[in-house]
Specification:
By secondary structure, the chain is α/β, with parallel strands linked by helices. Helices cover 26% and strands 34% of the residues. The chain has helices at 7-10, 26-36, 51-61, 85-93; strands at residues 17-23, 41-44, 64-70, 73-74, 77-78, 96-100, 104-109, 116-120, 123-127, 132-134. The protein is globular, with a radius of gyration of 15 Å.
Length: 136
């Protein structure tokens, strides 16, 4: 379906924002980062990340910081053990959250108009027309 164009997912690199880029396919994450180029301040997630310091840096510098993390899958689902407290804190603090799957990437936060959420058989189901980037 064409080449990956992450700009509409990442937003404007000159606008202050903390962006989380996460998913199970590390090679796709790296591909999106390399295509985005040097306009974005890209940083790998680490267990000692200071979310408050990142938010303060975004405000002080007035530009975007993208934190990326690869999370393992177990039987086609993200492994819950990957969601340690700091990653959850980062996800809640982020201005944008982008999920990078094996066949594409999608902006999951902020939620676009028209998104519905339902609980079905104990699972949260999100119904939306997503603005996605297809795999090349």
């Amino acid at each position: 379906m064409g080449q990956v164009a992450p700009y509409h997912l990442l937003g404007d690199a000159t606008r202050p924002a903390l962006i989380l880029l996460a998913g199970p396919d590390y090679s796709r994450i790296r591909e999106i980062i390399s295509i985005a180029g040097i306009a974005f301040d890209m940083r790998p997630f680490s267990s000692d990340v200071d979310v408050d310091a990142l938010k303060a840096e975004v405000a002080r510098e007035g530009s975007a910081i993208v934190v990326f993390v690869s999370m393992p899958e177990v039987e086609g689902r993200l492994d819950r053990s990957a969601f340690d407290g700091r990653l959850v804190d980062l996800a809640y603090a982020a201005d944008r959250v982008i999920y990078v799957g094996t066949t594409g990437a999608a902006l999951v936060h902020p939620a676009a108009d028209g998104i519905r959420q339902e609980v079905r058989n104990g699972n949260l189901v999100v119904i939306a027309a997503l603005d996605v980037v297809a795999a090349p």
